[in-house]
Structure formats: C-alpha cells, structure tokens
Design a protein that fits this description.
Blueprint lengths: L6 H9 L4 E3 L5 E7 L12 H8 E3 L3 E3 L8 E7 L7 E11 L5 E10 L33 E7 L9 E9 L2 E2 L1 H9 L10 E2 L2 E4 L2 E4 L1
Parallel strand pairs: 4-13
Antiparallel strand pairs: 1-12, 2-3, 2-5, 5-8, 6-7, 6-9, 9-12, 9-13, 10-11
Length: 208
C-alpha cells in the first residue's frame, strides 16, 4: 500500500512491509492491528482511515500491551471486480511455545451466509457452484465484500506472536478444467479441477 504511484513511495511501502500477495486474483485487502478497535469500526466505509488512526497496518509492530488489553484487528476485503465472490476471512496466529516449537492457529473471523461455526470452531464449507464440464461458475454464493473486527481470545502478553489475514474466495474452475473444456480432452484420474484463490497479508508482530 503506497501513498502514491511513484518509485519512491512503492519502495517505502515494501520497506515497511505494508504489502500483501494473492494467488492471482485482484482482490483488495486491508489489515490493521491495535488495542482499541471495536466492532463498530467494521461498519465504517473508510476502514483505512480508522485503521491508521487507531492502530498499525499490515507489516507493522505492536508492543508493550496495555494492562488488561488484548490486541484487536480490523480486516476488510473486496472481491476482484471481474472475479469470484468471497467465502471468508481468516486470521492466522503464530507463536513459539515453551518448548521452542512454532505453533499456529487459524481463526475464521468473517464469512458469508448464515453458516455457524461447528464444535471445533470452524465454519462449514461455503459450497461450490463450479460446473467442471463447462468450466464455469456463478457468484450465487459468497459476498463481494467482508469486513470484521476480531480480538485474540487467547492472548498472553508475555509471549511473542504474529498475526496475518488470509482471504479466501469461493471455488472456481482450475486451469485444468479450462484446458479440458477448450481441447475437449478427459483429464487423468485424480486431476484437481477446482481451486480456491486467496490472498495473504504481511503479518503484524507483537513483541512484549
């Protein structure tokens, strides 16, 4: 995220790690972390304004947790204008445990439809509209936009941690499905014919 379309601004954005990647789609993603985000912030039509005012953007650092507070995150995503709808937004938390091993936990923080998390805390699949034989899909499921505020329910202010956002689209035909349709061939058994495109943000790091 550069302040302007110049070589210098783009380099500055990369230097401060305010970047995200996608698997090819052109969705738009914003991700901010801080100590004072509230659910009402997800109703803003200017999440970046709120994000910069109350926290740090993707690639930023949090430290010295205020007494009694847990980190909260504002995350927003907008679909590729000519692509698939969004399925969900996840936040991935990572930390080093007492044995020195890396641990990670994935939290579903925003999703489409009236799905409810199961006993394991995971939201069920959004389903699929892909017609493999014709290599087509429809945007009759999912939503064009998702935004949420999430607070870490298991925060330990004494442990270093990182958080990044992952945005997942509804399933779409994979290139193998397009090729099979175009060349009228039957793919080998076991060929994957659908894909769920996604985006990943730079992490926000917490240091005690």
């Amino acid at each position: 995220w550069a302040t302007e379309n110049t070589r210098w601004a783009i380099w500055d954005a990369m230097h401060r790690r305010e970047t995200y990647a996608t698997t090819g789609t052109r969705m738009t993603v914003r991700f901010f972390g801080g100590w004072d985000f509230v659910n009402a912030d997800a109703g803003s039509r200017q999440p970046a304004t709120t994000g910069y005012a109350k926290g740090v953007p993707m690639g930023g650092d949090l430290s010295k947790a205020p007494s009694g507070k847990r980190p909260s995150f504002l995350v927003a995503a907008l679909k590729d204008t000519i692509g698939a709808n969004l399925d969900r937004i996840q936040i991935v938390k990572g930390w080093i445990d007492a044995k020195g091993d890396l641990q990670e936990k994935v939290y579903d923080v925003a999703w489409t439809g009236d799905r409810k998390p199961g006993a394991d805390g995971k939201v069920p699949s959004v389903g699929s509209t892909v017609n493999v034989a014709n290599a087509t899909y429809t945007n009759s499921i999912g939503e064009p936009e998702l935004i949420a505020v999430w607070t870490d329910p298991n925060f330990d202010p004494t442990i270093r941690a990182f958080y990044y956002a992952r945005v997942i689209e509804i399933p779409t035909p994979r290139w193998t499905a397009y090729d099979a349709k175009r060349f009228n061939v039957k793919p080998p058994a076991g060929t994957k014919m659908t894909i769920t495109e996604r985006a990943y943000t730079s992490p926000i790091w917490y240091t005690p």
